[in-house]
């Protein structure tokens, strides 16, 4: 009898931790940041970013508009956490920043882009509604550059 109770208890406990992964359709749409900035993630995998404060992302004191392609990626395989990767053809040189690297004895400017962690509600952060964020400086400070779907 104890064996069956234990099996039922473990089954119920494991079912409470079911990970609900949102799909691309969920992320498609307009996302606004509390601290300024707007992302429009299009169904075709392109995006438009307006008023993005790069001081929160890479410590560059600039607010920029840019566009490019986005995709969903899994950044933490153990917890199955998701992130949104935003990639563009814009470079830091487009915004008058010297952020370069050398390859084959030629100097190139890094492309502008960043990733946002997808986080849900609940103790395991895996229930809707979802938010997208990146940490501002030290994650221990719990300060986020957070985007909410509109």
Which structural traits does this protein have?
single chain; about 150 residues; alpha+beta; eight-stranded antiparallel β-barrel; two-stranded antiparallel sheet; 3 helices; about 15% helix; about 50% strand
Structure, described:
- With 150 residues, this protein is α+β, with helices and mostly antiparallel strands.
- The protein has one domain (20-149).
- It has three helices and ten strands; from the N terminus they run H-H-E-E-E-H-E-E-E-E-E-E-E.
- Strands 1-2-3-4-5-8-9-10 form an eight-stranded antiparallel beta barrel.
- The protein is elongated and about 75 Å long.
- It starts with a helix and ends with a strand.
Beta-strand percent range: over 45%
Cα end-to-end separation: 51 Å
**Looking across the biggest beta sheet, what order are the strands in?**
1-2-3-4-5-8-9-10
**SS class:** alpha+beta
- Shape verdict: elongated
| Sheet of most strands | 8 strands, antiparallel, barrel
| Annotation, overall tally of beta strands | 10
Query: Helicity, in percent?
Result: 10-25%
| Count of the domains | 1
What average pLDDT do the residues reach?
Answer: 84
Radius of gyration: 19 Å
Low-pLDDT runs: none
Order of helices and strands: HHEEEHEEEEEEE
Number of helices: 3
How would you sum up this structure in a few lines?
The protein is α+β, with helices and mostly antiparallel strands. The chain is built from 3 helices and 10 strands, in the order ααβββαβββββββ.
